Amino acid sequence: MLFGKGVEISQRFNTFAPMSEDMTETQDESTERLDLYIEALVFAAQYALNLNELRKVLQETFGQSFSKDIVAKNIRQIQDKYGAEEHAIQLVEIAGGYLFMTKPQYHKIIGDFLKMTSKKKLTKAALETLSIVAYKQPIPKSEIESIRGVASDYSVQKLLEKELVEIVGRHEGPGRPLLYGTTIKFLDHFGLKNTKDLPKLKEITPVEDTIGLPTEEE
Q1: Three-class HEC string of 129-175
Q2: What's CA 123's distance to the chain center, in Å?
Q3: What is the mean pLDDT of residues 25-54?
Q4: What is the average pLDDT across 95-121?
Q5: Do the domains 10-110 and 124-203 sit in the same CATH topology, yes or no?
Q6: How many other β-carbons are positioned within 10 Å of the β-carbon of residue 159?
Q7: Residue 121, pLDDT score
Q8: Does pLDDT of 9 surpass 50?
Protein backbone atom coordinates (compact mmCIF):
# COMPACT_ATOMS: atom_id res chain seq x y z
CA MET A 1 0.00 0.00 0.00
CA LEU A 2 1.51 3.22 -1.06
CA PHE A 3 2.05 5.94 1.49
CA GLY A 4 1.44 8.95 -0.73
CA LYS A 5 2.46 10.83 -3.84
CA GLY A 6 3.63 14.30 -4.73
CA VAL A 7 3.99 15.95 -8.10
CA GLU A 8 4.07 13.72 -11.16
CA ILE A 9 7.38 13.13 -12.96
CA SER A 10 6.76 14.52 -16.42
CA GLN A 11 6.35 11.96 -19.19
CA ARG A 12 8.70 9.38 -17.66
CA PHE A 13 11.60 11.89 -17.63
CA ASN A 14 11.37 12.85 -21.29
CA THR A 15 10.97 16.55 -20.44
CA PHE A 16 12.42 18.62 -17.64
CA ALA A 17 12.32 22.19 -16.39
CA PRO A 18 15.49 24.14 -17.28
CA MET A 19 18.08 24.70 -14.53
CA SER A 20 18.49 28.21 -13.17
CA GLU A 21 21.90 29.84 -12.71
CA ASP A 22 21.48 29.65 -8.94
CA MET A 23 20.89 25.92 -9.17
CA THR A 24 24.01 25.48 -11.29
CA GLU A 25 26.12 27.36 -8.78
CA THR A 26 25.06 25.09 -5.91
CA GLN A 27 25.40 21.78 -7.72
CA ASP A 28 28.53 20.70 -5.84
CA GLU A 29 26.89 21.29 -2.48
CA SER A 30 23.66 19.61 -3.57
CA THR A 31 25.28 16.40 -4.76
CA GLU A 32 26.76 15.88 -1.31
CA ARG A 33 23.23 14.97 -0.15
CA LEU A 34 22.18 13.02 -3.21
CA ASP A 35 20.09 10.77 -0.99
CA LEU A 36 17.67 13.63 -0.32
CA TYR A 37 17.08 14.20 -4.03
CA ILE A 38 16.55 10.49 -4.63
CA GLU A 39 14.17 10.39 -1.67
CA ALA A 40 12.15 13.26 -3.15
CA LEU A 41 12.05 11.60 -6.58
CA VAL A 42 10.83 8.26 -5.27
CA PHE A 43 8.19 9.94 -3.13
CA ALA A 44 6.90 12.05 -6.03
CA ALA A 45 6.88 9.36 -8.72
CA GLN A 46 3.69 7.61 -9.80
CA TYR A 47 5.42 4.24 -10.23
CA ALA A 48 8.50 2.35 -9.05
CA LEU A 49 11.66 4.07 -10.31
CA ASN A 50 14.59 1.89 -11.32
CA LEU A 51 18.28 2.82 -11.13
CA ASN A 52 18.50 3.92 -14.77
CA GLU A 53 15.51 6.26 -14.41
CA LEU A 54 16.94 7.77 -11.24
CA ARG A 55 20.33 8.27 -12.90
CA LYS A 56 18.72 9.89 -15.93
CA VAL A 57 16.81 12.53 -14.01
CA LEU A 58 19.74 13.22 -11.65
CA GLN A 59 22.00 13.74 -14.64
CA GLU A 60 19.47 16.12 -16.20
CA THR A 61 19.19 18.12 -12.97
CA PHE A 62 22.88 18.35 -12.04
CA GLY A 63 24.48 18.21 -15.47
CA GLN A 64 26.78 15.33 -14.54
CA SER A 65 26.63 11.55 -14.68
CA PHE A 66 26.20 9.26 -11.68
CA SER A 67 27.19 5.60 -11.62
CA LYS A 68 24.76 2.87 -10.64
CA ASP A 69 26.94 2.14 -7.62
CA ILE A 70 26.62 5.72 -6.34
CA VAL A 71 22.84 5.72 -6.79
CA ALA A 72 22.53 2.27 -5.22
CA LYS A 73 24.66 3.40 -2.25
CA ASN A 74 22.37 6.36 -1.64
CA ILE A 75 19.31 4.13 -1.92
CA ARG A 76 20.76 1.88 0.80
CA GLN A 77 21.27 4.96 2.98
CA ILE A 78 17.60 5.86 2.55
CA GLN A 79 16.57 2.29 3.31
CA ASP A 80 18.67 2.31 6.49
CA LYS A 81 17.18 5.66 7.49
CA TYR A 82 13.58 4.54 7.09
CA GLY A 83 14.32 1.12 8.55
CA ALA A 84 14.39 2.73 12.00
CA GLU A 85 11.38 2.15 14.26
CA GLU A 86 10.40 5.82 14.36
CA HIS A 87 9.34 5.69 10.70
CA ALA A 88 6.05 4.13 9.57
CA ILE A 89 7.18 3.87 5.95
CA GLN A 90 10.07 2.12 4.25
CA LEU A 91 11.82 2.18 0.88
CA VAL A 92 11.34 -1.17 -0.83
CA GLU A 93 12.29 -2.72 -4.16
CA ILE A 94 9.19 -3.44 -6.24
CA ALA A 95 9.08 -4.71 -9.83
CA GLY A 96 12.71 -3.74 -10.45
CA GLY A 97 12.28 -0.23 -9.02
CA TYR A 98 11.83 1.52 -5.69
CA LEU A 99 8.75 2.76 -3.85
CA PHE A 100 7.90 4.12 -0.43
CA MET A 101 5.44 1.78 1.28
CA THR A 102 3.96 1.46 4.73
CA LYS A 103 5.55 -1.09 7.04
CA PRO A 104 3.59 -4.34 7.60
CA GLN A 105 2.47 -3.42 11.12
CA TYR A 106 0.53 -0.46 9.69
CA HIS A 107 -1.16 -2.32 6.83
CA LYS A 108 -4.39 -2.86 8.76
CA ILE A 109 -5.05 0.83 9.40
CA ILE A 110 -4.26 1.65 5.76
CA GLY A 111 -6.53 -1.19 4.66
CA ASP A 112 -9.34 0.12 6.87
CA PHE A 113 -8.88 3.57 5.37
CA LEU A 114 -8.97 2.25 1.81
CA LYS A 115 -12.12 0.26 2.55
CA MET A 116 -13.78 3.46 3.77
CA THR A 117 -12.69 5.55 0.79
CA SER A 118 -12.60 3.10 -2.12
CA LYS A 119 -15.48 3.50 -4.55
CA LYS A 120 -14.39 1.12 -7.28
CA LYS A 121 -13.37 -2.32 -6.09
CA LEU A 122 -12.67 -5.45 -8.06
CA THR A 123 -15.62 -7.82 -8.06
CA LYS A 124 -15.19 -11.34 -6.70
CA ALA A 125 -15.33 -12.59 -10.27
CA ALA A 126 -12.49 -10.25 -11.29
CA LEU A 127 -10.39 -11.22 -8.26
CA GLU A 128 -10.92 -14.88 -9.02
CA THR A 129 -9.91 -14.34 -12.65
CA LEU A 130 -6.87 -12.29 -11.61
CA SER A 131 -5.76 -15.03 -9.20
CA ILE A 132 -5.97 -17.64 -11.95
CA VAL A 133 -3.93 -15.48 -14.33
CA ALA A 134 -1.32 -14.76 -11.65
CA TYR A 135 -0.72 -18.42 -10.85
CA LYS A 136 -1.22 -19.94 -14.31
CA GLN A 137 0.27 -17.29 -16.62
CA PRO A 138 0.66 -17.22 -19.50
CA ILE A 139 -2.86 -18.55 -19.91
CA PRO A 140 -5.59 -18.37 -22.62
CA LYS A 141 -9.10 -17.19 -21.72
CA SER A 142 -10.53 -20.63 -22.51
CA GLU A 143 -8.44 -22.18 -19.72
CA ILE A 144 -9.51 -19.42 -17.31
CA GLU A 145 -13.14 -20.22 -18.11
CA SER A 146 -12.49 -23.95 -17.76
CA ILE A 147 -11.12 -23.42 -14.24
CA ARG A 148 -13.84 -20.99 -13.18
CA GLY A 149 -16.69 -22.83 -14.85
CA VAL A 150 -18.24 -19.64 -16.26
CA ALA A 151 -17.66 -17.14 -19.07
CA SER A 152 -14.93 -14.65 -18.16
CA ASP A 153 -14.99 -12.11 -20.99
CA TYR A 154 -16.21 -9.29 -18.74
CA SER A 155 -13.70 -9.96 -15.96
CA VAL A 156 -10.76 -10.21 -18.37
CA GLN A 157 -11.81 -6.98 -20.08
CA LYS A 158 -12.06 -5.12 -16.75
CA LEU A 159 -8.64 -6.39 -15.68
CA LEU A 160 -7.19 -5.22 -18.99
CA GLU A 161 -8.76 -1.78 -18.50
CA LYS A 162 -7.30 -1.56 -15.00
CA GLU A 163 -3.92 -2.62 -16.43
CA LEU A 164 -3.62 -5.50 -13.97
CA VAL A 165 -3.32 -8.04 -16.79
CA GLU A 166 -2.04 -7.75 -20.33
CA ILE A 167 -1.80 -9.75 -23.53
CA VAL A 168 1.60 -11.45 -23.54
CA GLY A 169 1.40 -13.52 -26.73
CA ARG A 170 -0.52 -16.25 -28.50
CA HIS A 171 -0.97 -19.92 -27.72
CA GLU A 172 0.53 -22.38 -30.21
CA GLY A 173 -2.66 -24.49 -30.21
CA PRO A 174 -5.61 -24.41 -32.63
CA GLY A 175 -6.82 -20.90 -33.37
CA ARG A 176 -3.79 -19.44 -31.59
CA PRO A 177 -5.81 -17.77 -28.79
CA LEU A 178 -4.42 -14.80 -26.89
CA LEU A 179 -2.38 -15.45 -23.76
CA TYR A 180 -2.75 -13.29 -20.64
CA GLY A 181 -0.31 -12.45 -17.88
CA THR A 182 0.01 -9.98 -15.01
CA THR A 183 1.58 -6.53 -15.31
CA ILE A 184 4.05 -4.36 -13.39
CA LYS A 185 1.02 -2.46 -12.12
CA PHE A 186 -0.22 -5.74 -10.63
CA LEU A 187 3.09 -6.12 -8.78
CA ASP A 188 2.87 -2.51 -7.58
CA HIS A 189 -0.73 -2.95 -6.43
CA PHE A 190 0.02 -6.04 -4.34
CA GLY A 191 3.50 -4.98 -3.19
CA LEU A 192 5.44 -7.76 -4.93
CA LYS A 193 8.97 -7.74 -6.36
CA ASN A 194 7.96 -10.38 -8.90
CA THR A 195 5.47 -13.22 -9.28
CA LYS A 196 7.77 -15.53 -7.31
CA ASP A 197 6.70 -13.55 -4.24
CA LEU A 198 3.10 -14.74 -4.62
CA PRO A 199 2.03 -16.85 -1.63
CA LYS A 200 2.27 -20.57 -2.23
CA LEU A 201 -1.10 -22.17 -2.86
CA LYS A 202 -0.64 -24.45 0.16
CA GLU A 203 -0.24 -21.31 2.32
CA ILE A 204 -3.67 -20.03 1.35
CA THR A 205 -6.54 -21.11 3.59
CA PRO A 206 -9.36 -22.44 1.39
CA VAL A 207 -12.82 -20.96 1.84
CA GLU A 208 -15.79 -23.21 1.17
CA ASP A 209 -18.35 -22.44 -1.52
CA THR A 210 -16.22 -19.83 -3.32
CA ILE A 211 -15.11 -21.79 -6.37
CA GLY A 212 -17.08 -21.38 -9.57
CA LEU A 213 -19.20 -18.27 -9.29
CA PRO A 214 -22.72 -18.79 -10.69
CA THR A 215 -22.72 -15.55 -12.67
CA GLU A 216 -20.12 -13.41 -14.37
CA GLU A 217 -21.03 -10.14 -12.64
CA GLU A 218 -21.74 -9.56 -8.97
Answers
A1: HHHHHHHHCCEEHHHHHHHHCCCCHHHHHHHHHCCCEEEEEECCCCC
A2: 20
A3: 82
A4: 82
A5: yes
A6: 23
A7: 72
A8: no
What pTM was computed for the model?
Answer: 0.50
pLDDT, position 5: 42
- Phi, psi angles (nearest 5°) of residue 167: -80, 125
Q: Which amino acid is it at 150?
A: V
Q: Where are the domains of the chain?
A: 10-110, 124-203
Instruction: Tell me yes or no: is domain 124-203 CATH 1.10.10.10.
Output: yes
Q: Is the pLDDT of residue 218 over 50?
A: no
List the alpha helices (DSSP H) in the chain: 21-25, 27-30, 34-44, 51-62, 68-82, 107-117, 124-136, 141-148, 153-161, 184-190
- Whether domain 10-110 has CATH 3.40.50.10740: the reply is no
Contacts of 128 (CB under 8 A, 6+ apart): 148, 155, 210, 213
Q: How confident is the model at residue 116 (pLDDT cuts 50, 70, 90)?
A: confident
Cis peptide before 177 (omega within 30 of 0): no
Taking the C-alpha atoms of residue 212 and residue 168, their distance in angstroms, rounded to an integer, is 25
In the three-class reduction of DSSP (H, G, I as helix; E, B as strand; rest coil), residue 99 is classed as strand
Cα separation, 50 vs 149, in Å, equals 40
User: With contact defined as beta carbons under 8 Å apart, do 73 and 34 qualify?
Assistant: no
3-state secondary structure of 31: helix
